Amino acid sequence: MRRNATITLHWLNFALVILLVAGGLVPFLVWAFALSGLAIWAIEIVRGLMSGPGPKLQGVLRTAHPWLSWGMYLGAVAAFTIWVLLGGDLGGPRLFELYFFMLSALSLLAIFHLWRHTALRNENLRRITPTTLHCML
Known about the structure:
By secondary structure, this protein is mainly α. The protein has helices at residues 2-23, 27-47, 59-73, 76-85, 95-118.
């Protein structure tokens, strides 16, 4: 159940960030993004990260892995979104800029996981893809 919820929220959040950057700040999508981001954060805080660094990941990347994972899932952008939706002011970047930053960070994360899956051959992508897609990996 936890795995399915995390995977579903993970891909929903990714799709929503793309839609928000490409299509603008549609209120329904903004709320959906914020709530899905906080849901991922809650699952990870309560139950811990779903995966750790693979055995072949060494050095600085191994040390940074949990911090990078928590940084992506802590829900900072989701929390900032809710703050703005409830009338708060960020006093800095606008929501669109935060979403663009988030999409950039997610793109780097995707490249990192593709590298782990292909170069390290640790089948990393199997951890975050729905079971029905494993035959494609």
